[in-house]
Structure prediction request, 110 residues.
Amino acid sequence: MEEYPRRVKRELKELAGQAYENELGRELGELAQHFDDWRDGKIGASDLTELVHQYHNGPARELWKKYNGPFTELLVASAIVNGILQKEQVSEETRPYVEEAIKRYRLLVQ
Prediction:
């Protein structure tokens, strides 16, 4: 992360944390559906255990690695571009840094 003012750094970390929670919640919602299927007798306990294992080693691990890496400003930019966070969640002080990061993110994914 570039050298940003301390408050901006803190807000970027908080926004990245919120994006992580949002994405993790979406993945957990999918996992919850499998628990419902198990309760309804649509899948067995061993199937559910395998799905939990896949969740732990797949989406949960990937999201943890993604959001605990460097370049917090790009993580926030990515979350905004992909609809995980809303631009309105960013304070006026931090918004110019995020807008610049969004430009850089879009260049990276083209």
